[in-house]
Structure formats: C-alpha cells, structure tokens
Amino acid sequence: MSTKIHLEQYLKTTKAKGASIPIGLQELLIAVANTCTTLSDEVAQGALIGLLGSAGTGNVQGEVQQKLDVIANDLLIEGVQECKALAGLASEEMELPMPVQGTGDYLLLFDPLDGSSNIDVNVSIGTIFSILHKQNPIAALQNSDFLLSGRHQAAAGYVVYGPQTTMALTLGDGVVMFTLDKATGQFVLIKDRVEISPTTKEFAINMSNMRHWAEPVRRYVLECLDGVTGTRKKDFNMRWIASMVADVHRVLSRGGVFMYPWDQREPNKPGKLRLMYEANPMSFLVEQAGGASTNGKQVIMDIQPQDLHERVSVMLGSKEEIERLQSYHA
Ligand code: AHG
Ligand code: MN
Ligand code: MN
Ligand code: MN
C-alpha cells in the first residue's frame, strides 16, 4: 500500500499553479483543521457531553442558535488566534468582524456549524470556511476589508462531520479531499483531483418550497420530475439532506445539482444562504472541480458583496445543468 499523505505534508509539498503554499496560509489551514478535529470529537459525543439543543440565544441572521453553533464559533476563534498572517475573521454567528492580528495577508470567514437543524437528529453537519486575500496587508483592519468577491479567495473548504469526517479543500488549483484518521488525529489525503461530471440525473432542493419559487426554477424542477418521457428524457433522482455541507459533498463526490433559490416568501431578500460563508466557498470548490454556480443572473463568485451577511440565491453543481438553469433565467 502506498504511504499516506497528511494534510500538513500536503500543504508543505504541493504547488498551486506552480507556486508553493505560503507558510502563513499553511498555518491558518492547519489551525482550522485542528479545530475541526476537536469539533468532530465533540459532535460524535453529542448528548453524552450535553451538546444538543438550543443555546437560547439568537444570531444576526435572525436564527435561534443551537449550542453547537456557539461552541463551534468559539472554538474556531480560539483556534486561529496565533495565526500570524491572519488579519481578522468574520462568522455567520457574529454581527461584526473580529480583528486577530489586525494586519496580515488573510481574512478568514466561516459558517462554524452548517446544518443546525440536523444536529439533534444525528445527521451530517459541517464547518465551511473561506480565506480571502486582504487587499492591503499592512493597513489596519477595517470592516469594509471583508467585502470582496469570491474571486479574491486564496483557499476555501469544508469539513463534513458524517460517518467519516472529511475535508474538501481548494487552493485555486483543483480540489482535494482528506479524511480524518481518528486513531492518529491526522487528515489523510483520499482524493487528489475531485471532478464533478458535467451531466447528472440527481438534484437537491427543498421541494416543500416549490409554490414559492420563481418560474425558471419551477420549470427546471418540473422537467426533472417529468422523467424519461418528458423533455429531459431521463429519470432524475432527488436527495435533500438540509445541511448544505453534506448536500455539496454529495455533488462533489458523484455529481448533481444543489439549489437554494430565491423564493417569494421573502421577496426583498435575494435568498436564504449566505454569500460570504456558504455560497462563495462552495462555489470556489465546485468551480475548481469543473462544475459551475449561479444565482440565476450572475456567476456567484463574481458578485460584489455590499454587506458581510448578504444572502444569495444559490444553484451549483454539474456544468450542463447549471448552464440550463442560467438559460431558463435569461
Ligand atoms: P445554517 O445551519 O448554517 O444556518 O445553514 C442552514 C442552511 C443550509 O445548510 C441548508 O442547505 C439549508 O439551510 C436548509 O434549509 P431548509 O430548512 O429549508 O431545509
Ligand atoms: Mn445558522
Ligand atoms: Mn450554513
Ligand atoms: Mn451555520
């Protein structure tokens, strides 16, 4: 059997577009991975350590926080404090960004715990992270520094806490996956060129919202439901885990389309999912694996954010399906 490659080794030896990974970025990624290792252990214990249930507090998104939302957020903040290249961080769970070193090359944004509604029912959840290049590393951190499009990401990834704890990572030159070896505490490389097939017969969407969707999304899904005798001439299958991290992990693993589109329940909100913590990092991964992402009008990573907690309509996955969805929106 060939030797196992650990995350640390991988970061030290790999080249992204011909260049070595800067030490500051390596340190930051290791710090995030170590925190996720701790989180993975805690998630696995659940009720045994009193981790389930609501925290009784609310967040800036207008959501009730689960205990694990708060714990994951605190662990991540603590875990990256020593990272010398990290100027500051921002989280789904905090209204304002938080300075770390104040100056430095990178900004870290995260959804500390994705899939809150699945915590108490023992279904896969995860952590999503996005690392932006700070535009002026030596200038003191300002909140507006975070308002960069997804094109400014130096790295992005997620860790899914499922039957296995698996990390997907992109440094802008393809996508790799690591699985946590719980015996050694090391993330071990399991896939080094993740590719999403351009075609698929699988889609993921919360079907209970169908009556609220815009016409292009209704049309797309109804055509999928028509099956082999319909315009699409194939039988589609549907999967919905309700943790974006797990739904996107499936798309990266075997293709498919994930959608959380705008809907008319909240006509003035562009969507439910967050651009900076969810849509951008996932779009970076999907694009790097040969897939695509859109909000219907624009490629997600091209959107210039106006607000840290900005929301967005999300459709991502197999390229031909995303192109079809885009054409229905044109
Ligand atoms: P979060 O737990 O970070 O707030 O995100 C939840 C999101 C996302 O993970 C998932 O795709 C979606 O909410 C699920 O929404 P439904 O409740 O409509 O299924
Ligand atoms: Mn939330
Ligand atoms: Mn989330
Ligand atoms: Mn979350």
Automatic annotation (TrEMBL):
One of its GO terms (molecular function) is fructose 1,6-bisphosphate 1-phosphatase activity. SUPFAM superfamilies: Carbohydrate phosphatase. Binds 2 magnesium ions per subunit. Substrate binds at residues 114-117, 206, 272. Mg(2+) 2 binds at residues 111, 114, 278. The keyword Ligase does not apply. Pathway: Carbohydrate biosynthesis. It comes from the Bacteria. Its main location: cytoplasm. Residues 197-329 form the Fructose-1-6-bisphosphatase class 1 C-terminal domain. This is Fructose-1,6-bisphosphatase class 1. The lineage of its organism: Bacteria, Pseudomonadati, Pseudomonadota, Betaproteobacteria, Burkholderiales.
